[in-house]
Amino acid sequence: MIRTSYLRIYVPASTFTEDERRRWLAEPGEGEGSEHPRYRAWLVTGRLPSEEPGYGSTENAYVREVDGRFYICPWRTRLRMLAGLLAFRDSVPEEVAEAFVPQSEARRAAKELAALDERFPEIRSHILHANWHVPLRWFAAFDPSERVLVEDRRGLRIRYETHLAGALARLAHVITVLAETWLDEAVVAALKELTAWLEEFTPDALLELDYGSVAGMFDHDELVEDQCAAEVASCIEALEVGDGPRASRLFGDLTDKWATVRAHEIVN
Predict the structure, then answer these.
(1) What is the sign, positive or negative, of the torsion defined by CA atoms of 19, 202, 227, 136?
(2) % pLDDT > 90, the chain
(3) Whole-structure pTM over 0.90, yes or no?
């Protein structure tokens, strides 16, 4: 099993067509792992399932109701699968990439992704995922008070939820602080990339960070005490007031924590 965390965008139901609203509100997705298992075949085989190209108009979606208003997060599974296949190939050394994702499959994925973008330019992936960890940059979009402990049939896990406008404001502030004080330009670039993705959606959308199955890598007490968003916020505050040593210590503690968790990826 690959442990996965998620960053999801829920947009107002009115954003979608009447047919999509009727279908998704009548039968919403049940949660993590409920996406069609055939779409996960590429994780094992490195090859795309031989189904109709494009995004599945019959695919399901996650639905949230907040203050009497419905928000929808479409799965867009094949779109994410295409991008993920190419990203995975680029993430491994060239000399072993062929063993995991053959060049022929990469070309097919790239061709289909380009055709999809040309035919449906308005279609966007509403979900980002990360394997074996939660990226620290995701926490920068949330206020620590937006942390929620959730318990379901899979056990205890952590979720954050905020309005997109607030998330963008926080990220803009973090980028400004880091640009003035941080030496690692890659960190700022990653935050700008995240911001660019979020800006593709309507400002009244909801943003959700879900530890997903990554939560299963911690015990109950560790999850209860986990305050990563607060620690990221403290790190930014320390930089803002010029307390470099404290910021470095906080950031080091966070990276050490998640480096230990990500070590499971090597084992697997």
Answers:
(1) positive
(2) 49
(3) no
